C-alpha cells in the first residue's frame, strides 16, 4: 500500500518536485510507517526562502487590522479543526489525546494573542529639542528561519510562527523530521483561513540537511529555534557568521522544591504532572524533585504509588495518561539512563519495564529514582522522558543551592505555604520562570525563556515584538536650522 506523502509547502502549495531522499515517519504506538517524508534539499529551501521574500513586501505593508483579521480567522479555523488535528498529532508524537486537546487550543490562541499584541504596539516620540521632532517606529524585520522540535509540534511551531508573522514578517519553518504531519496540516488550514501564499512556507527534512540549508541561507534575516542545547549552539554559531539575530528556546533540568509546609496533595499532583505530562518530553518538566527530609518518605512513597497507577496506552484513547515515547532512538536513550542511575549509585524506585499488554510501540513504565547527589548524571543531564530524579534536602538554603547547581535555567517550581520561602525561591533561583504552587502556568503576555544553557531571548508580548521588529528613528527639522555650508565661501 502506498503511504501518504508529506512534502514541503512552498508558496501556498505542496512542493511536488522530487528531491530523491525520502524518510519513513513511524507511528510510535505501533512501529508501523505512518507516511513518507520527501526531504527538501538546498534548492527547495531556496525556493521557500524566495517565496517568503516575495510575500514580505505585501504582508509587511498590510494594515495591522487587515492582517489581524487573517490571524483571528486562523485561530477560529484551528479551533474548528481541533479534534482531527489533535488526533494527527497524537499518532505522530505518541502524546495522549487528552493532553493534545489543550495543546491544540494553545496553538490557536497563539495567533489570537500575538495579533492582539501587534494591534497595541506604539512608538516613541521626542520633542525635547524644539527644532526637531524625533519619533521611533517599529518595522517588520524580514524573513525568518524557524526550526521546531518533535515533542509538541503544533504548540511550539505555532508559537514560533505567530510571534513572527503577527509583526509583519514572513517565514520558512522546518519541523522535526519525526513529526511533520500535524504542522503541515496546520499550515494548510492557515491558508484555508486566508493566509496569503508565501507568508508561511514549510520545508520538511532532516536537521543536518534541510535545517542546515535554511539557517545558512543568505536571504534569512533572523532565526527562531526551539530544540536541544547542542543543536542551538550549532545554529547560533551558523547564524552569527552571517550576523543574523537568533532567539533560542533550549533544554532544561528544572527543580521542583517541595517544602514540608506545602499542601501535600497539591504538591503531589503538581510534581507528577510536572514530570510526566506530555510523556515526560517537555523542556519545562520538573525532572529534579527536591523534597524536605521531614516529608520525604511519605511524599516519595505516594509519588511512586501514583506513578505505578498511571494509565499507559494508546495515545488516541482519551483515558490514556501516558503514551509511547516519540521514536525508538529516544526511547532507548531514556531507558539507558537506568544504567547511568545504577552506576551513579541511585536507587531505582519504579519503572523502566514494558507495560503489560503493550508489546509493540515505544512504551515504557514511567521511571523514578532517588539520586545519590545532585552531581550525578541523572540530576545533570536532560533526559527528556518520563524519568523523575529525587533528592532530599534539610534547609531551604540547601534546596536553592541544589536548584541552581545546573547548567540549565529554564524554569523552577516551589511548593510551600510560607510566603517568605516562596519569595526567596523567586528571587534566588536562576531560571527564566518560577512557578509557585502551580505546575506549568503559561502566561503568553509575560516573557518565557531560559537563563544559562536554556537559551537566549524570550517569547512573550514585549520580548517577541522586540525580537521580530527593527526600531527606526526618524528626525524631522521643524524650522530651518543653521546648516554647515561646505564650499559656499568659494562661490562669493
Ligand atoms: P533537536 O535540537 O535535536 O532538534 C530541534 C530541531 O532542530 C529539529 O527540527 C531538528 O531537525 C533541527 N535540527 C537538528 N540539527 C540541525 C542543524 N544542524 N541545523 C538546523 N536544524 C537542525 O531537539 P529535539 O527535536 O530533540 O527536541 C528536544 C529538545 O528541545 C530538548 O532539549 C528540549 O528541552 C528542547 N525544547 C525546548 C523548549 C523551550 O521552550 N525551551 C520547548 C520544547 C523543547 P530533525 O529533528 O529533523 O533532526
TrEMBL record:
Assigned EC number: 1.2.1.8
UniProt keywords, alphabetically: NAD, Oxidoreductase
Active site (UniProt): 249
Domain of life: Bacteria
Entry keyword annotation includes Oxidoreductase: yes
InterPro entries per UniProt: Ald_DH/histidinol_DH, Ald_DH_C, Ald_DH_CS_CYS, Ald_DH_CS_GLU, Ald_DH_N, Aldehyde_DH_dom
Gene3D superfamilies: Aldehyde Dehydrogenase, Chain A, domain 1 (3.40.605.10), Aldehyde Dehydrogenase, Chain A, domain 2 (3.40.309.10)
Enzyme class: oxidoreductase
Domain Aldehyde dehydrogenase stretches: 20-473
GO molecular function: betaine-aldehyde dehydrogenase (NAD+) activity
Entry keyword annotation includes Ribonucleoprotein: no
Family to which the UniProt record says this protein belongs: Belongs to the aldehyde dehydrogenase family.
PANTHER family for the chain: 2-AMINOMUCONIC SEMIALDEHYDE DEHYDROGENASE
Protein name according to UniProt: Betaine-aldehyde dehydrogenase
Organism annotation: Novosphingobium barchaimii LL02
Taxonomic lineage: Bacteria, Pseudomonadati, Pseudomonadota, Alphaproteobacteria, Sphingomonadales
Amino acid at each position: 500500500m502506498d503511504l501518504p506523502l508529506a512534502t514541503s509547502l512552498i508558496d501556498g502549495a505542496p512542493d511536488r518536485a522530487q528531491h530523491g531522499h525520502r524518510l519513513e515517519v513511524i507511528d510510535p504506538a505501533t512501529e508501523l510507517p505512518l507516511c513518507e517524508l520527501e526531504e527538501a534539499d538546498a534548492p527547495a529551501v531556496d525556493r521557500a526562502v524566495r517565496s517568503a521574500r516575495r510575500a514580505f513586501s505585501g504582508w509587511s505593508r498590510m494594515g495591522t487590522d487587515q492582517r489581524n483579521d487573517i490571524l483571528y480567522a486562523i485561530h477560529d479555523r484551528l479551533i474548528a479543526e481541533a479534534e482531527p488535528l489533535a488526533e494527527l498529532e497524537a499518532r505522530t508524537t505518541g502524546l495522549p489525546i487528552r493532553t493534545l486537546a489543550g495543546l491544540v487550543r494553545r496553538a490557536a490562541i497563539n495567533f489570537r494573542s500575538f495579533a492582539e499584541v501587534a494591534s497595541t504596539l506604539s512608538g516613541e516620540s521626542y520633542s525635547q529639542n524644539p527644532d526637531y521632532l524625533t519619533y521611533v517606529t517599529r518595522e517588520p524585520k524580514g524573513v525568518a528561519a524557524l526550526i521546531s522540535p518533535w515533542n509538541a509540534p503544533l504548540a511550539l511551531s505555532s508559537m514560533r510562527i505567530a510571534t513572527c508573522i503577527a509583526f509583519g514578517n514572513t517565514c520558512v519553518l522546518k519541523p522535526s523530521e519525526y513529526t511533520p504531519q500535524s504542522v503541515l496540516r496546520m499550515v494548510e488550514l492557515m491558508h484555508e483561513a486566508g493566509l496569503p501564499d508565501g507568508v508561511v512556507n514549510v520545508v520538511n527534512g532532516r536537521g543536518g540537511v534541510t535545517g542546515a540549508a535554511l539557517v545558512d541561507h543568505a536571504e534569512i534575516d533572523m532565526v527562531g529555534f526551539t530544540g536541544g542545547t547542542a543543536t542551538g549552539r550549532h545554529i547560533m554559531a551558523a547564524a552569527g557568521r552571517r550576523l543574523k539575530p537568533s532567539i533560542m528556546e533550549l533544554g532544561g533540568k528544572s527543580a521542583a522544591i517541595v517544602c514540608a509546609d506545602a499542601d501535600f496533595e497539591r504538591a503531589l499532583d503538581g510534581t507528577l504532572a510536572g514530570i510526566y505530562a506530555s510523556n515526560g518530553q517537555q523542556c519545562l518538566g520538573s525532572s529534579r524533585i527536591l523534597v524536605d527530609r521531614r516529608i520525604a518518605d511519605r511524599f516519595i512513597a505516594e509519588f511512586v504509588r501514583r506513578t505505578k497507577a498511571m494509565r499507559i496506552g494508546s495515545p488516541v484513547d482519551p483515558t490514556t495518561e501516558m503514551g509511547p515515547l516519540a521514536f525508538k532512538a529516544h526511547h532507548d536513550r531514556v531507558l539507558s539512563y537506568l544504567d547511568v542511575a545504577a552506576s551513579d549509585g541511585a536507587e531505582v524506585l519504579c519503572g523502566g519495564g514494558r507495560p503489560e499488554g503493550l508489546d509493540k510501540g515505544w512504551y515504557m513504565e514511567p521511571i523514578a529514582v532517588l539520586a545519590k547527589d545532585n552531581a550525578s548524571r541523572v540530576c545533570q543531564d536532560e533526559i527528556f522522558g518520563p524519568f523523575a530524579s529525587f533528592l532530599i534536602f534539610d534547609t531551604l538554603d540547601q534546596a536553592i543551592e541544589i536548584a541552581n547547581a545546573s547548567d540549565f535555567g529554564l524554569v523552577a517550581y516551589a511548593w510551600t505555604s510560607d510566603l517568605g520561602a516562596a519569595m526567596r525561591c523567586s528571587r534566588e533561583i536562576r531560571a527564566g520562570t518560577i512557578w509557585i504552587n502551580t505546575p506549568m502556568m503559561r502566561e503568553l503576555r509575560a516573557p518565557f525563556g531560559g537563563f544559562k544553557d536554556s537559551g537566549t531571548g524570550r517569547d512573550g508580548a514585549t520580548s517577541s515584538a522586540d525580537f521580530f521588529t527593527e526600531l527606526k528613528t526618524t528626525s524631522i527639522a521643524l524650522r530651518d536650522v543653521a546648516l554647515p555650508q561646505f564650499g559656499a565661501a568659494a562661490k562669493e
